[in-house]
Amino acid sequence: MMTWLPVLPILLPLLAAALQLLAGAHRRRRVAAVSVVSCVALLVLALVLVVDMSTAPPQVYRIGDWPARFGIVLVVDRLSALMLLITAVLALAVVPHLLGRWIYHGVYLQPLVQLLLCGVNGAFLTGDLFNLFVFFEVLLAASYGLSLYGSGPRRVGASLHYIAINLAASALLLVGISLVLAATGSLNMAAIARQVPQLTDNARLLLHVGAGLLALAFLVKAAIWPLGFWLPRTYSSAIAPVAALFAIMTEVGVYVLLRLSVLVLGADAGPSARLGADVLLALGVVSVGVATIGVLGARELGKLAAWSVLLSSGTLVGAIGVQQPLVTAGALAYLAISVPSLAALFLLTGLIVDEQETQEPQQLEPYDPAGDALYEHEDERDLRSPLSVVIVSVAFFATAILLTGLPPFAGFLAKFSLLAPLLNYGVGAQCLFAAILLGGFGTLVAFCRAGIQIFWADDQWVFPRVRGRNVLPVAGLLLLCLAFSAWTVAPWHYVESAAQQIHAAALYQQAVLP
Amino acid sequence: MEAVLAIAIGVLGASGIWLLLRPRTFQVIIGLGLLSYAVNLFIFSVGGLRRGADPVLGTVAAAGSYADPLPQALVLTAIVIGFATTALFLVVLLTSRGMAGNDHVDGKDGPA
């Protein structure tokens, strides 16, 4: 494998965003072409990395070729490669949706999406704690712009809360990072992990306080109870494709929690081993419970999808708290199925329009300086097409089956692989087992009710005539998930070996600091 | 010197958190500003407080006699990022004020 491959998933979207800004907002075709090329390239790159990593040890890229102790390193292992792949699939599915009516509601949608991808990929790849903060800020700054996109009082209000809570969380993150630096004298994750077993008592106290603050910051990003109440409002008021892309953002928080808890505070960490793991488990169980209530109480499709995101991240954080390779493997399988399904659900919310909404005046004049007046052709609102209803309802049905985990499809297999080992690891894990089952039941009830209301009972829903570029990505995501119902052996081997690799923390340290 | 700095960080942080929990958007942004001052001072102090220590340039006499450059680099990055995000928040705050017609964080004034 070429050694510079790990830096490309960060550079490519950054370059794409720069090109799009240079091209100008009114060159819509060029901007869209750059987006599509960048997303396809990211997908190919992620596939290459996944194939390479399935047989190789973690690969390290040293930025500027500085020794790992002094410089910033990017580390790609099976977990990072898997997360990159999920991100790339999601991005490729979202980009065609951005070309629809949304481009007339503002400017710079595509560059912001590329910058978000740059930040997300960077957070998955970096092996340096402060660099992680920088990539978090990159992805958050882009997400502020995206959550505001389309404007209107509802989006601005929701974004105000979203930005305020994330700025406060970033302050916590910085304090946590500097405490860890004070305790261990390093920002490199592998170097920190190597230091932890031999810390003095004073330094260990600092490390534990720092780790607690870091965990708080990442729990805010992962939207875990009681720090996640910003999420339903933000996600349900963002435009549909953006909300679909945001489905990966909570997973960034989940990823960092997983990475740091097994690497720095894992089984080899001496007196710090399993620090806070039980807290994560308990928070996961409560989050799943709260999200179940939220899913059952959701009155609109966007809110239902947003609370399902909370359910998914609660499940994952609880599974991280168990800290066993088999449970982690199940959690990764669950993540790989639930994120594309959630994205498909968010994309579907954009295809089902509330009739009252269509009668509200536009918040913004369509942005159309070139005057190509595509807007009239794009105004799909009056068209009620029976075919659209069929397509959208079948897609909704498939999404519901995947998210609730009904057999015999991939959603069930993933959930089963997570649930099966949970019973062997004590009372806490058994509580998580029960909570996940209850959550699945709650989701089932909520989806049944939503489906009946939208497709059978109410007249208030309009199904604009669907276009290929809207339907194909949703269908692609769902078919991809459904394909894993039949093709199971190789993917399961991959997530299982990924889980074993991250739980063998010495392997990561060896790769970064030989 | 440590005590003075610790008290300063504590006062800034506490005031920031109190303001952050207030109902007016202006109070929130001032709170976030104070909080980021507190955090920046905190990062700065992580390298240890020394008066008249040399920067890391050329040959340094003894390890430990120079100022730790890493927290300085971190605090610079944190200041730049904090500045940018605060500026963005200010724009959102003004937009919210314009759209809602008041400066309450929820966009509507409760019973006075």
Distance between the termini of chain B: 45 Å
CATH structural fold name of chain B: Helix Hairpins
User: What is the helix fraction of residues of chain A, given as a range?
Assistant: over 70%
- Estimated structural class of chain A: mainly alpha
Supply the number of helical segments of chain A. 22
Strand content of chain B: under 5%
Distance between the termini of chain A: 19 Å
Uncertain parts of chain A: 359-382
The domain count of chain B comes to 1
Describe the secondary structure blueprint for this structure.
The complex is a heterodimer of chains A (514) and B (112).
Chain A: H1 8-23, H2 28-53, E1 59-62, E2 73-76, H3 78-98, H4 109-125, H5 129-148, H6 153-184, H7 189-195, H8 201-221, H9 230-237, H10 240-246, H11 249-263, H12 277-297, H13 301-322, H14 325-349, E3 353-354, H15 355-359, H16 375-378, H17 386-404, H18 410-422, H19 426-457, E4 461-462, H20 468-486, H21 489-503, H22 505-512
Chain B: H1 2-20, H2 25-46, H3 69-100
Which tags fit this structure?
A: mainly alpha; two-stranded antiparallel sheet; B: 112 residues; mainly alpha; 65% helix; 0% strand; elongated
Overall description:
The complex is a heterodimer of chains A (514) and B (112). By secondary structure, chain A is mostly helical. Chain A has a domain of 202 residues. Helices cover 73% and strands 2% of the residues of chain A. In chain A, the strands form two sheets. In chain A, strands 1-2 form a two-stranded antiparallel ribbon. Chain A has a two-stranded antiparallel sheet with strand order 3-4. In chain A, 58% of the residues are buried. Chain B has 112 residues and is mainly α. Chain B has a single domain, classed as Helix Hairpins (Orthogonal Bundle). In chain B, helix 1 runs antiparallel to helix 2 and helix 2 packs antiparallel against helix 3. Chain B starts with a helix and ends in a 12-residue tail after the last helix. In chain B, 25% of the residues are buried. The model of chain B has no long low-confidence stretch (mean pLDDT 86). The interface between A and B is medium-sized, with 30 and 32 residues.
